[in-house]
Amino acid sequence: MSVDELIAQRDRARQDYEALVAKGLKLDLTRGKPSPRQLDLADGMLAAVDRAVSADGVDLRNYGGLEGLPELRAIFTEALQVPVGQLLAAGNSSLELMHDAIVFALLGVLPGAERRWADEPEITFLCPVPGYDRHFAICERYGIKMVAVPMTPDGPDMDVVEQLVAADPQVKGIWCVPKYSNPDGTVYSDDTVRRLAAMETAAPDFRIFWDNAYAVHHLTDQPAEIADVLALCAEHGHADRAFVFGSSSKITYAGCGVAFFGSSPANIEWWVSHTSKRSIGPDKINQLRHVRFLGDADGLRQHMRNLADLIRPKFDAVDKILTAELGGTGLATWTAPAGGYFITLEVPEGCAREVVAKAKAAGIALTPAGASHPYGDDPADRTIRLAPTYPDLAEVEAAITGVATVVRLVAAEKALSTT
Amino acid sequence: MSVDELIAQRDRARQDYEALVAKGLKLDLTRGKPSPRQLDLADGMLAAVDRAVSADGVDLRNYGGLEGLPELRAIFTEALQVPVGQLLAAGNSSLELMHDAIVFALLGVLPGAERRWADEPEITFLCPVPGYDRHFAICERYGIKMVAVPMTPDGPDMDVVEQLVAADPQVKGIWCVPKYSNPDGTVYSDDTVRRLAAMETAAPDFRIFWDNAYAVHHLTDQPAEIADVLALCAEHGHADRAFVFGSSSKITYAGCGVAFFGSSPANIEWWVSHTSKRSIGPDKINQLRHVRFLGDADGLRQHMRNLADLIRPKFDAVDKILTAELGGTGLATWTAPAGGYFITLEVPEGCAREVVAKAKAAGIALTPAGASHPYGDDPADRTIRLAPTYPDLAEVEAAITGVATVVRLVAAEKALSTT
């Protein structure tokens, strides 16, 4: 493209951007929040319990029951691929459980560990990128060093992972969102899961933080299946390697769901040695609400299909608009995930921050550029996370159309600045 | 008393004890649990929310609202003596908040601290005895050294406390249950609270863990009032000294209540620097249930009066039976608290463990002897905690009558063994 053509392109994009700003939009694609209509589908929860007694006759209003309601754990055992006896049901947030797992490992000796992580000279976690900013924030809060590992269409680049974990005993963990990964929608291949389970690690207390946040969050009729990480770890002689996390936050109510922790018997015992000092038991009535509302694993599946019917049109709209506006321009690529909550938009190198800034100036709030990387630092400045679930369909359409305009403008300005 | 008289007394007690064992009782006075009838009084909670929207129009089903519902904090601000803006409402357990306060202090630098507690050579907490075993269990789990401080009728012996905190910069905290203390029912005098707030501590990051668990749990028509610890700390130039904890576990539902954390603005900011990495917000719908059910501070007071009507007869029965069975014998003393959940029974030195063991053999479960002391070690082996709220009145009467029999037997055997 000649400089004149570039200038003409930029000028057209500028006009479009000025028109966009003039609209005075106020749209928010920042966080993976369920929409009010999604939450409406779970309103049966509110009146689901009129007598708070468990299946085995326990008065759920009182203290106790640290491991969570067995009948609730039974509903999620298949989806999370954790035997009921190794699956605990807790409070309203799996993020809390991930945070606490790190805290407990810092302050208590993990099975297989030589010492508390707080007594190690340094702790390093591997962070497949793009990844989830709240994972990275926990590491940063507790001074855990993060090393980025590139994602592939099959999950983290296992050649890199295997080399890093074999070389350094201070590498103690890896963050994984194995199904419909946040934010690029990747589903880990069976071979990736097997290699994670089988690999030799220099640290005897290496842990996979398996955040299976989107285990049942399918958007197509072909639900993705991933390999059973706990079984594979045990099979390869690393039974205590994986911590499995999940929650119903994006199934029932985002703020009032139930979170799950699953692991090996030794890890569960270690976990309870901490939580039994901390807790008088989870809110068992809220757990019973989930049992009454979801019924069983089939009920869970049907509820997720109903939710997908609300979410799918928004994901389709994003893909359709980006294709119409940016397809064939070479200015961007984007994912079309089969589940989960996010779409990753890749823009030309050095443009992501400016796209987010100009979108903001036009009233379209996006997740900060860099958020998908440790320390908020995307070295290529390319990756933008789009979260289309919360706004209604018309708002998603307006926001993505605006984002495409911004991408055209920023890319043209960038191209001109380097000619 | 002559040896013959002692033998006769022991033989009578033995007969009574054998008759007790023959009854095959199965009674439990171990934990401070609300009775089913108490919980029934809160059953209005279950259907209290049919539309989950806050006073200011926020959809409470979704993520967010880390500080908790303002309208709930407003109900508890007076009872907990914490300004609404410095009072956070969280999940279902204040024990969790106390645990997390210690964890956050171990892993993050407290306002006024020179370093993280995890980086200190040693951390010591003062433990007024008798005290609460779950406080001690948290310290023990994290290797925090505990030093017992005797209780007086006005609270901890402040001469001892002042000396210990002034002498050693590793003394970083003290556990306090300032109103109707667990287990002896003591109400801290204004002078005790003032001295706690005013005293000079060698540690710049000393904290009072102010577990105001029984703030509104009165059993008489003269509610105990304690001094305002946050205000006194600020007044004496130690604004960041106190962490205030409270909960509705013994107000509404024990397992599904709401817990509170209150402190200085600097401490709240520090707290949120941790919790904002951990949490996506508390269960706000359960908080709204509390708002709808309790209404306001007057509603809370009325509800507590209704609960007291169920609890008071049990405390009265304990006092009446112990007076009838042991009064004037010199074999025991016991508290007659004006609120809270516990009665402390003091038996002759060296007898508490044996009383608990023999009670157990007769089907009466008591809190383990020593539980009210750090490391489960009551050096005098004298203190037994009685928790009369959970069993029904007839069971309490049967259990306490049995306990009195056991005390007579163990004391007689002890007296004989030392003649």
Automatic annotation (TrEMBL), chains A, B:
It holds the Pfam family Asp_aminotransf. The keyword DNA-binding applies. GO terms for molecular function: DNA binding; L-aspartate:2-oxoglutarate aminotransferase activity. The keyword Transport does not apply. Gene3D superfamilies: Aspartate Aminotransferase, domain 1, Type I PLP-dependent aspartate aminotransferase-like (Major domain). It comes from the Bacteria. Keywords: DNA-binding. CDD domains: AAT_like. PANTHER family: AMINOTRANSFERASE, PUTATIVE-RELATED (PTHR43799), ASPARTATE AMINOTRANSFERASE (PTHR43799:SF1). This is DNA-binding transcriptional MocR family regulator. It comes from Kribbella antiqua.
